[in-house]
Design a protein that fits this description.
Chains A, B: It comes from Heliorestis convoluta. Chains A, B: This is Transcriptional regulator, lysR family. Chains A, B: Keywords: DNA-binding, Transcription, Transcription regulation. Chains A, B: InterPro entries: LysR_HTH_N, WH-like_DNA-bd_sf, WH_DNA-bd_sf. Chains A, B: It holds the Pfam family HTH_1. Two copies of one chain form a homodimer. The first copy, chain A, is mostly helical. Chain A has a single domain, classed as Winged helix-like DNA-binding domain superfamily/Winged helix DNA-binding domain (Arc Repressor Mutant, subunit A), CATH 1.10.10.10. Chain A contains four helices and two strands, in the order H-H-H-E-E-H. The first copy, chain A, has a two-stranded antiparallel ribbon with strand order 1-2. In chain A, strand 1 and strand 2 form a beta hairpin. In chain A, helix 1 packs across helix 2, helix 1 packs across helix 3 and helix 1 packs across helix 4. The longest helix of chain A is centred in the C-terminal third of the chain and has 25 residues. The radius of gyration of chain A is 15 Å and the shape is globular. At the A-B interface, helix 4 of A face helix 4 of B. The structure holds a DNA duplex.
Chain lengths: 90, 90
DNA sequence: GTCCCTTACGTCAGTCGTAAAAATG
DNA sequence: CATTTTTACGACTGACGTAAGGGAC
């Protein structure tokens, strides 16, 4: 599980579309599809229901979204704190 | 940045040794060294001071340790919550 | 036909282990 | 010399893009 997968997951959850997320992330749809499948595999749960009108979070997906948002927020705080620090190398 | 790196980082921070962490994680010392170097590179900060008597967290390393522990805790909560869910596939 | 997601496949970066090197006590 | 970390190198896994496939409107 890596943070790129988590960012892609949150992006898809927001725009409710793999293809739109792909454009926003400057990736291809297959890359998005692969990332989501990989995340679903490691978490052992289906995160999205795929329909012709769009993709939507399952119950498990909503749970995951809640925690993953928190993790990404903490990651940003970490980066912010390190940027203020001495050992930071631009 | 992936979660294996974060777990290795926390392990090294606890045992203050790459070699001991390697044994505990069932990896080799070079693998630990590489993971830490990679994490230091992505965070843009030196996390450990390497001495002959052991490795110790730098100031930036202590900051990172604080946030990374929180991220790993949330990851565990996520796994716990998903395990209670319907869509969970063993 | 059009749009969207998935599968298949070749390519390239990242990670591991083994082996050798460098540094410290 | 013993211990620990780092570097070098070959092998493997994982992620990407291109191209083709399948389903819904």
């Amino acid at each position: 599980m890596n943070f790129n997968q988590l960012k892609v997951f949150c992006l898809v959850a927001e725009v409710k579309s793999f293809s739109k997320a792909a454009k926003l992330a400057h990736l291809t749809q297959p890359a998005i599809s692969s990332q989501i499948q990989s995340l679903e595999s490691t978490l052992g749960a289906t995160l999205f229901t795929r329909t012709s009108t769009g993709v939507y979070l399952t119950d498990a997906g909503q749970v995951a979204h809640h925690y993953i948002k928190k993790m990404l927020l903490i990651q940003e705080e970490l980066n912010d704190q390190l940027r203020l620090h001495d050992q930071y190398l631009p």
